[in-house]
Specification:
globular
């Protein structure tokens, strides 16, 4: 068990470093106008580390997202100007919760064939990230002049659909494909078990 715990800690450290690198370099985001398609919510940690490790990585992702609200992200900068506290809740809260629940999804699928576990976990990571981010965004800023001006005559559901649009589709596809590919590589290297980390034994 001790050897396995050490392996998990090393992997967590490596994934954290990679996440921070992606967050502050062009490889982590595809910027389109005021919005960004993020490639940082690729839940390798959910497969390899389970809910706790995945939540930690989600927290790190959230912290880097909040940091970008100070002049790096145009959209985030505006939100932070309205309320830094609410912006912190949106960025950190959504990513941490998405990370944890994606880890839960992977754990629930630990008896499924590895490719199914990995692909569904990848899809879940992207979907949950979008779902929680947009939910918290609308709860915290939905009545602000900034969001209301963006909504125009659209109702909430129509606005959310238009707002995420192609972003959500691209993130879902990329997350599914890369989570499957990288996780299969980690399994081949015996860094995770046949069904993911939750099925590994010391």
């Amino acid at each position: 068990m001790k050897k396995y715990d050490t392996k998990k800690l090393v992997l967590l450290a490596l994934l954290t470093g990679l996440l921070v690198l992606m967050a502050f370099t062009p490889i982590g985001y595809l910027n389109i106008g005021p919005l960004s398609i993020t490639f940082n919510m690729i839940p390798i940690g959910a497969v390899a580390l389970g809910p706790t490790g995945s939540a930690v990585l989600g927290l790190v992702f959230g912290i880097t997202s909040f940091a970008q609200c100070f002049g790096i992200s145009a959209f985030g900068t505006v939100l932070c100007g309205i309320s830094p506290l609410l912006t912190l809740i949106v960025t950190i809260g959504s990513r941490t919760l998405a990370g944890y629940l994606t880890g839960v999804v992977s754990s629930l699928l630990r008896k499924a064939p590895a490719p199914v576990n990995f692909a569904v976990t990848g899809l879940a990571g992207a979907v949950l990230n979008t779902l929680f981010f947009m939910t918290l965004l609308m709860v915290c800023f939905g009545s602000s002049d900034y969001i209301m001006s963006m909504r125009g005559e659209l109702n909430v559901l129509a606005f959310v659909a238009a707002f995420v649009g192609i972003n959500a589709v691209v993130e879902a596809v990329v997350s599914t494909v890369l989570t499957l590919a990288v996780s299969m590589g980690l399994k081949s290297a015996k860094l995770i078990g046949n069904k993911g980390s939750e099925s590994s034994k010391a």
